[in-house]
Each structure stands twice: as C-alpha cells, then as structure tokens.
Amino acid sequence: RMAPRDLHRMAFVQALMDSSFMQEDKCKMLFARIVGRPLDVAMEAQYSQTLKDLNDQMGFAKFKIKTVKNPVDNKKYVGFVNTNVDEPSKLGSRYSLAQRDLFKQAMECISQSSCTDGSNGAPCASQIELLNLGSRSANWQTTIANSSQAGPSTQAAAASNKPLSKVQIEETLRQLISDGWLAGAPSKPGYLCLGVRTFLELNAYLMALQLPEETRAAWEVVL
Q1: How many whole angstroms separate alpha carbon 52 and alpha carbon 33?
Q2: What gap in Å lies between CA 80 and CA 219, rounded to an integer?
C-alpha cells in the first residue's frame, strides 16, 4: 500500500505532466491543495524538498521538474521536462517534419532578431516575417527527385517535408502558440516571442545560437 506522501507526489507529477507547465505560484498552490494544507512557509519548504526528491528519483529516466523565469513576462514557470532531447525535434509526432522545420526557423529568427518587445526587451519577430519562413525550404523538388532513387521510407520522409502553404503556416503558428512554444509579444500586436516551453525545454539549444549580445546577457541570467 502506497504511503500518503507518495500518493501526493504521484498526483502532483501527473497534474504537472497533464498541463506541461504552469506559473510557479499556481504550481505551489496545486501542491498545497493535493497535500491538503495551506500554502505557508512550511508548505513552501515541503514543496521545494519534494521537487528536489522527485528530480533525484526521475533523473535516471531523463525527466526533470524544472523552474525557469520567462524573459518575456518576467514570471517564473514550472514544467515537466524531458532532458534527453534538447532540440526542436522534441515537438515529436504531433508536428510534421515541415512543421518542426518551421518552428526551428521561427525560433532562430526570433532569438536572433534585433527587434524587441517594448515592455521587457524580449526579442520578437512579426507574424508577417514568420509567415514567409515556410517558403525557405529550398531544393524540395530536388530532394524529391533524389529520393525517387532511394527506398520508400526515404521518399515518404521527403514528401512529408514538403513546404507548407501560407494557410498551413498560419495554422502551425497558432498551434505553436497554443502549445506554449511561441507567444504573442505582450505590448506589440502582430509580433511573436518565444514561449515558456521553449525556455523550459530548449534553453541549451537557444544558448548555442548566434545571439545578439544583449539577448545572450539577459537570457544567461534567467536560463
């Protein structure tokens, strides 16, 4: 029979997995509600210890409960992260190869942009600029032609990477925002910043990019 503390931890982890991420304040309130105690100093200490214990236990499976300060809104978020992968392919089967390639291009475009959101200085890019990224899948026809000499799996992979239409790009950007990979610029309508999940799960990938000095300095503090 499982001890109450273990049941609380399982329920907490499951809730966090279901939501992918949440603001730290809400995460602490969730933990206190599961445990059945008020969120006081003692409960905050138990919360911190629980996160440490869970991360120690999940380390072998390459999972981690991670806290990061979002440079876009300056709020802290907690997320359930797979530490075994730190690249755009983490989006997994929910997105096609072409959609993952679009996200990678969008992430690099935003990260390296000199345009910033006035409310916090976070780099951003216009949605119009991002809509044009999908047309950069150059040499697709050449790829298809070459793949005809290869096996069925190679041909299928090449076909799935067909450049997205403008409508498909718009829908993909909306999905990336919904899933937390991208976010609207707080004070700049029509512009997008990176989302919380990108900072939580792809921080090492971001810091490996050729970033403007100001962006790198700001992100090094929070990531």
Answers
A1: 19
A2: 20
In angstroms, rounded to a whole number, what is the distance separating the alpha carbons of residues 110 and 124? Answer: 5
Euclidean distance between CA atoms 5 and 33, whole angstroms: 13
Q: Tell the residue number behind the tokens 């997994």, with chain if given.
A: 92
Tell me the C-alpha distance between 16 and 30, whole Å.
9
Q: What is the pTM of this model?
A: 0.84
Sequence-distant (6+) residues with CB within 8 A of 83 are: 62, 63, 64
Q: Which two tokens stand for residue 171?
A: 């829908």
Instruction: Answer left, alpha or beta for residue 151, where phi above 0 means left and psi between -120 and 50 means alpha.
Output: beta
| Tokens of residue 135, six digits | 């047309």
**Is residue 198 within 8 Å of residue 206, measured between CB atoms?**
yes
67-91 pLDDT, tens digit each:
999 999 999 999 999 887 666 766 7
For residues 184 and 125, give the distance between their C-alpha atoms in angstroms, rounded to a whole number.
10
